[in-house]
Amino acid sequence: MKTEVLNLEKEYSFSKGEKIVVGCSGGPDSMALLTLLLALRDSYDLFLIVAHINHNVRKESKEEEEYLKLFCHQNHLLFESMTIEKYGDDNFHNEARNIRYQFFEEIIHKYHADTLMTAHHADDLMETILMRMVRGSNLQGYSGFHRVVLKNDYKIVRPLLSYTKEEILDFNQKNQVKYFVDSSNKENKYTRNRYRKEILPFLKKEDSAVHMKFLKFSEILTEANSYIEKETKKALKRVMKDQKIVISSFLKEESFIQKEILYSLFANFYQDDLLLVNDKHIELIYRLITNSKANLTYNLPNEVIAIKNYDFCYLERQADFIGCYEIEFDDMVSLPNGHQIVRLKDTIENGNDICLLNSEEVALPLTVRTRHFGDRMTIKGMKGSRKIKDIFIDCKINPKEREVWPVVVDARGEIVWLPGLKKSKFNKTKTEKYDIIMKYQ
Question: pTM of the entire structure?
Fold first, then answer.
């Protein structure tokens, strides 16, 4: 076999008896990688497992899977595959990538493998860097992806990263490697394809070794980012509390570190979906943080919301809409916010989470509901009434919590208690007559 074009031993130090899961689509890149590994299998006593994803978007997908299965059988390779039956509404390439790596990790753990190898090459790296530069990112994003990534119990290795697509195709031709071509790679509706077809040829014409310049660029940024990550970790300890940014502390940091903190917040929250966000989102969150308003929200990709609540900023998945509720109170009510209101026989407590009522002064039954527009209550010890909305603001209750916060009313619609926050004029002291005791817990 003529392997002088591609040399895996030059790119990666194999271990004797290494267990390797090979991500293989059946395309030219992954078939070249698989062929090269087969040539080295005996020398290093490699244990190879081929992991294949049938993306189920082309009619040829089943034929390709069957060929790869037969190829593995003929070459005494373990073969594992999965078919994606349905995609969500997310970006197709990003969703497929997440499913792919999740499947690879399952196979890694099934066989207790050491390494996952993928066939990413120099052109892939160039495309990724250029796309990130146009979309906007931080240093880590601009560096593209790395030759070796250390995970908790295995590593991801991309041993073809120094080689171009042309070199891989040349290798396949010289060694008569059979492969399949994904017709969707020619469609201009996909951003990556436009970079591949229009920008990379121009760059290669300017400099035939341009891919090595991009690789060097990636390595330099990775090294710089390593230092910045150390400084960002120190800053995160100064500004984060319970997964939330403390805004007053955040604003004391240098502007560059502030942006890195926001990228870190995104990275922890989005993880494999991080490709969905860019520096436009960073800028919008920064504006949210520095806005003079105390409570603000901003919608992010994948049904995530950024929330500013007084001195805190954090990300949250949008919960399914709970809607309004109205529940007649007997002895106990379970609430959508995870709390309960229970009836007690006696108590020595007397905070805002306790309500003492005289049934002769309120109209029964009592009802627990969400707030209504214009709701007002007369607070114990105060003249006149106050809007529930203003009480929420004074108590620094964020807008999302307000929507499901319980309001206790009597049969006349009078607000008799705002659990956990304020007592009404109907609430009794320990020395007064009362026969209803409720606790918010």
Answer: 0.64
Task: Determine if the peptide bond prior to 301 is cis (ω within 30°).
Answer: no
- Same domain, residue pair 107 and 178: yes
pLDDT tens string 264-290: 998 888 765 666 777 888 998 999 999
pLDDT one-digit tens code per residue, 70-88: 999 999 999 999 988 765 5
> What whole-number distance in Å separates Cα of residue 308 and Cα of residue 286?
11
**Is the CB of residue 328 less than 8 Å from the CB of residue 400?**
no
**Tens-place pLDDT, residues 146-167:** 999 999 899 999 999 999 999 9
Written as six digits, the tokens of 259 are 């942006």
Q: Give CA–CA dist 47/33, Å, rounded.
A: 15
Q: In terms of DSSP bridges, do strands 332-334 and 340-343 run parallel, antiparallel, or are they unpaired? A: antiparallel
Phi, psi of 342 (to 5 degrees): -120, 155
Residue 44, CB half-sphere, CA atoms under 13 Å: how many? 20
Domain that holds residue 251: 242-317
Lowest mean pLDDT among 22-31, 67-76, 83-92, 193-202: 83-92
Rounded Cα–Cα distance for residues 307 and 389 (Å): 18
CA distance linking residue 175 with residue 266, whole number of Å: 45
d(CA 20, CA 1): 22
HSE, side-chain direction, 13 A CA sphere, residue 301: 19
- CATH code for the domain in which residue 304 is found: 3.30.465.60
Q: Do 407 and 280 share a structural domain?
A: no
Residue 290's pLDDT is: 94
Nearest residue to 148 via CA among 14, 268, 348, 316? 14
CATH code of 361's domain:
3.50.40.10
Low-confidence winner among 25-34, 133-142, 241-250 (lowest mean pLDDT): 133-142
What does the alpha-carbon distance between residue 292 and residue 305 come to, in Å, rounded to a whole number?
A: 19
Cα-based distances in Å from 127 to 174, 185, 429: 26, 13, 71
Q: What number of CA atoms fall less than 13 Å from residue 307's CA on the CB side?
A: 17
